[in-house]
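Typical record is below.
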Amino acid sequence: MKIILLPNYLCRLYHRFTGASYIFTVLFLLGTTGFAQSQEQQTLPDHIYPGLEHVLSLTQPVTDLDPEQLSELINFVGAIPVGSSMDLKKRQGAAGAFYGFSVQGDLARVMDYAYSPDIPTYITMPSSIKNQKWLTPQVHHALRNLPRNVESTDAVHLLRGRDHEAITPDTHTGGYYSYNQDRVVTVLPGPTGPVLISVSIQNDSSEVGKKGCIIGEDEDWNYLYSGEKGLNKTGLGWVSSYMYYASSIIIYVADSTENVVHIGSFKWLNAGWAKMNMVKSNHILKGIERLASDFKIVLEAPGLPDASVLAKKYKDLLQNSEQGLQQMVSPYLQALEDSKSAELSSNPFKKLLASGEYLEQMSREEMVKVLMLEYVKGCIGKEALLQLASQSTQDQSSACLL
């Protein structure tokens, strides 16, 4: 076993799912000099890299998709056992990792939830994505037709544009980040059913990391955002941290016979502070595993409402007045404050909640996000701080009522 001596501050940054693309997080561990164990990890076979590079090149408008160049890559994702993980070769100085998982169901259904412009990405990636917005209007509209294209044609469909994404707070430091990235979403025929590929490249640095907070367990999906620069950890409040570069490929390979979608996530990340890259492959892997767990929990939950029901709920909430949204969100924030969570013992969050300032500074989209996630939690059997959900065996459209 190999022992590595680490510096006093170990900066551990990793990506956590885009749903469309994935989420990046940062771990800064504060302490005295210590030791870490480096475990042997499988590496991705060399013959897979040409397909990955071709996929990443699709973010450039001059590149056309060549299905023949992707056959080995698609076959790899479709055949690799669930739970497999591998290190990737560095790309532009960024560490990388791969993880494979699966979701029961067909690809069109996965797309209806995870790639619909009418359902926020955070619904299927709640512990990873704070918000996501397409900056290319034509892509936003074209996504509505993509699930039907998957079911009805054997042609290649490719959407190319840019989006803005922000991630949830890191589990160790509370840091959260936002950034713009080039995006491609494409569907094409595969050996066992249709294939969806989502690609993202972040070439420009993110906005500076800001202080966020996770209340309770991360799987409870309760997060607060201060808007203040720095990290929410003793001794690291001063840090100006950034995500410098990231690239991500998520490949969904449908097996129509088995009614399952095999998913492979490939991620590279360069992040840290003072232009130093602190991220390692195992940090990225942990983030992908977290995203995969939530993605599977949500999409395989028996109580998950139809995509059309979620889309209508989201639309209805957006149409509420700001005052109306504040009235609905206020009990949620009060429940967080009453929880006496240890994470609230430090400023700025304790003061922001007690004074009512946090509610006042919440945007409309932030309030809608709270209500949507509480609604979904109630529907799929997770504990919700707001009692928004009630079950009905007669009509799924009324299974979760706000």
Remarks:
- The chain is about 30% helix and 30% strand.
